[in-house]
Amino acid sequence: MKYTRSTHLAHHPFVRLILSSYLNIAPETINLSSTRQGKPILLNNDCLFFNLSGTRDQYALAISQLVDVGVDIESHKPRKNLTGLAESVLSNSELTRFRQLPCEHQQDYFYRAWSLKEATLKADGRGITLPLQSIGFDTNSTIGAVGWNETLGNKNRWDWYYFKLEGISLALATRTTS
Questions:
Q1: Which intervals hold domain 4'-phosphopantetheinyl transferase (predicted)?
Q2: Cα torsion at 167, 63, 124, 148 (round to 10°)?
Q3: d(CA 43, CA 25)
Q4: Alpha-carbon span 130 to 123, nearest angstrom
Q5: Which residue segments constitute the domains of the chain, with CATH numbers given?
Q6: Cα(122)–Cα(99) distance, rounded to whole angstroms?
Q7: Residues 37-51: pLDDT tens digits?
Q8: What is the longest distance spanned by two Cα atoms in the chain?
């Protein structure tokens, strides 16, 4: 089993308690493992999908009985070289939009894009193994993919949700498999 922060969080007694309520079994009988990329999974169970994320003292747990799910929570930390980081992470269309924004809005935009990308890759099960620039989002009104890596499958089978809390970005990505 590859050890990651998400794998560690999956073994937390509170997470086991929540998962056990969905499965109607005792928390200590939950059999967890992880994919080669480190995504925590339930062994011997193909009817419950879950994903975890943590930042500072905030945690997010997404659970679904219907679709693959990925979640990412990010604390908005000031970055010394936000523009350089944006250039290495954002797609061309996102980078154009980022550069058009006033400086005071660039950080929020960056974390929104980052959390949507990471939630997508976590739902897929790869983690950050694809170039982040190969996925782009239009987030003006509804969230839609404007740049898409075809190895993630048909983008019409994906849905994204985003919430901004005080200094926190929270993104959820879901993918139907049929």
A1: 69-165
A2: -50
A3: 14
A4: 13
A5: 5-66 (3.90.470.20), 72-175 (3.90.470.20)
A6: 27
A7: 888 889 888 889 999
A8: 53
Q: Which two tokens stand for residue 156?
A: 């019409």
Q: CA of 24: how far to CAs of 6, 51, 61, 76, in Å? A: 23, 19, 18, 37
Which pair of structure tokens corresponds to residue 87? Answer: 């250039």
Residue 108, pLDDT above cutoff 90? yes
Token digits of residue 43: 């062994």
Looking at residue 66, its amino acid is L
Stated as kind and residue range, the H or E segment containing 161 is strand 158-165
Full-model pTM: 0.90
Cα radius of gyration rounded to whole Å, the chain: 17
Q: What share of the chain is helix, strand, coil (3-state, %, to 5)?
A: 40, 30, 35
Sign of CA dihedral 97, 152, 67, 10: negative
Between these two residues, 84 and 47, which has the higher pLDDT value?
A: 84
